[in-house]
Every structure is written in C-alpha cells, then in structure tokens.
Design goal:
Elements (H helix, E strand, L loop, with lengths): L27 H5 L7 H4 E4 L4 H7 L5 E6 L4 H16 L5 E6 L4 H6 L7 E6 L2 E7 L4 H8 L13 H10 L3 H14 L4 H13 L3 H9 L3 H4 L2 H15 L3 H5 L7 H13 L3 H14 L7 H13 L4 H14 L1
Parallel strand pairs: 1-3, 2-3
Antiparallel strand pairs: 2-4, 4-5
Helix pairs in contact: 7-8, 7-9, 8-9, 9-10, 9-12, 10-12, 12-14, 12-16, 14-15, 15-16, 15-17, 16-17
Length: about 325
C-alpha cells in the first residue's frame, strides 16, 4: 500500500514548502471554536491501514496532526498527553491522528518515520511541518502557534505556572512544578536550572548547588546556571530579609550595600545594580571598592549579552571615565 498525497499523487514522505495552498489558516482555531465544543473523540483518532487514506483525504478540509508513537517509548508517553490536551483545547482546529508505529511499521516507513515520537502537520494533502522528540508543552504550543491562532483563555503551561509561582514568591510550588518537568524532560536542562532557582528561593542553597553541579559541563558553565550559582553565593553573603528590614531608614554605605546585595540575591538584578552603582557614586572606597567588584560579579553571572549587563556596563564605564 502506498500513502499518496491526494493533491500531488506522490508518496507523502518529505515536507513540502508551505504556501497559500497547503498551510493551515492562522485563524483556523478561532473559526473552529465559534460553534459548539467538539467531543474528544471528534478531534482524536487512532490511525492504521484501514483509515490512513481517508484521513489524508480529510486533510483537504481540516489539518491533521499525525503523531507516530510507540507504546514502549517513554518520550512518547510524555508527549502524548500534551498533544491530546492541545487537540481538545484547540477545539477542532486540527485533528490529532495517532499512529502506533510498532503495530504499523509499513505505514511508519512510508511516512519516513525514523524515530518516535514523530509529529507531522498535514494540510490539504501536503506535509507542512514536523518535529521529532518529546518537546515540552510550551515548545509544542509555540510550534502550533506558527499555524493556528491560539485558543482564547488557554490555560498556562507547567513552565508558565512555575515561573508565575516563583515571581509570586511561592518557591515551594515553583519547585514542585520544576521537579515534575525535570522528571518528564531530563535532558531539557533549562528546567534543572529553574529547579535550582526555586531551591535558592527556598533557602536551600546546597541543594541548588548540587543540581547545578550535575549539569553537563557546557550547561553548567552557561550564563543561566552561572546566574543561579551567583545567586547562591550572593544569598550566602547577604543579610536575611529580616535583617535588611531591620536597617529601617538607614542610608549609610553599609545599609545601601546590604540592600543592593539582598536584591541581587533575590534575582532583582536591575534594582540591585542600580543600588550598587549609586553606592559607587557616593562612596567609591566602601569595603575596598565592594560595589564595583560586586557589579562585575553580577555582569559575569548574567552573561555579556544580557541587556542589563550591556546597560550597566556602559553606566559603569561612564562613571569611571
């Protein structure tokens, strides 16, 4: 059996260039959600030899998200619930067609599937785009966003929930989200850095340092991990929040430095940098040039390309020269 592109008559094995004839409309989701919400069984189907040709022909009317998977693959087990959740959420903007590649090796081969999970977007008989591997939900949403209007009131992704919790000061909830993400996506190292950041916010600097130490060397030395490691070091040097609050209205150099150091330790880099720069202006000699040295430490932690590094390095240069 050949799997034929009904538009071109050719085997559907390689992506074709997106154009006006085969790219899903970016407004498809909003159009699809204008009527009653579809049932789960209306937007998610199992694919096999009995319906593959019918499904490809149906792609002339509605885009098909074709997920080739294996019951033995842990990445597939991680990605599948994400795709199913989004298929329901997008309410008919596309149909999720699930192909068990182990049970249907001939179809998988004709589709050019070399590893699973393998996700292909088929529209009007043409292969528009694809990705391989268990992408995190946030990345899948971004990928779908190239072709579909995101649904209104879309729920926050786990990554967004973790970031929101951390910003709100709920470090324990952020840690729980990141722990789940790191277990699901152990090679997505940004989640391990996020977990370390949440641990720092909980006051668990040693645990955070352990997480960072277990990263691959290239990730361990990258700017995000260096930034968290610097936060650990700054937190160990800084006064506690209670001690900073006890400074009250004091505005001497020691109080200025400790407030700025606490802000840097909390990840409020802009306010901390501003405070250190102000201290340099008013008392350059404080603590053997402690403000300037700390500024340089923050620059190193953020990385040379970080906008705050660029801005405050320029301000520092102007102050010095």
């Amino acid at each position: 059996m050949s799997i034929i592109d009904p538009r071109t008559g050719e085997a559907l094995t390689a992506p074709i260039s997106p154009d006006a004839n085969n790219t899903p409309s970016p407004t498809a989701a909003s159009d699809a959600t204008s009527g009653p919400a579809p049932r789960r069984e209306d937007v998610i189907i199992d694919l096999d030899a009995s319906n593959i040709q019918q499904v490809l022909e149906a792609s002339m009317q509605v885009p098909i998200l074709l997920d080739s998977w294996s019951p033995a693959s842990e990445p597939c087990k991680t990605l599948m619930p994400v795709l199913e959740k989004l298929a329901v959420e997008y309410a008919g903007a596309f149909i999720l067609a699930k192909l068990d590649a182990d049970a249907n090796p001939e179809i998988a081969g004709q589709l050019g599937v070399r590893s699973v999970p393998d996700v292909k977007l088929v529209s009007q008989g043409g292969l528009v785009d694809s990705f391989q591997g268990a992408l995190p939900e946030k990345d899948v949403r971004e990928w779908l966003g190239r072709y579909f209007q995101p649904p209104e009131d879309a729920p926050a992704s786990p990554e967004e929930l973790a970031e929101e919790a951390l910003k709100a000061g709920d470090a324990a909830t952020a840690r729980e989200h990141y722990q789940t993400l790191t277990s699901q996506y152990p090679e997505h190292y940004a989640y391990q850095v996020g977990l370390a950041k949440a641990l720092v916010a909980e006051g668990r600097g040693d645990d955070a340092r352990s997480v960072l130490d277990n990263l691959p060397p290239e990730e361990r030395d990258a700017a995000p991990a260096r930034g968290v490691r610097a936060s650990i070091e700054f937190a160990e040097q800084a006064l506690s929040h209670q001690e900073v609050a006890a400074l009250g209205e004091r505005n001497d150099s020691e109080a200025q430095f400790q407030r700025a150091l606490r802000q840097v330790a909390d990840g409020d880099y802009e306010q901390g940098l501003e405070g250190l720069l102000a201290l340099m202006k008013s008392d350059r000699g404080y603590g053997d040039d402690a403000a300037r040295k700390t500024l340089l430490q923050v620059f190193d932690a953020l990385g040379a390309e970080h906008p705050l590094t660029v801005t405050y390095r320029r301000k520092l240069f102007a102050l010095l020269y």
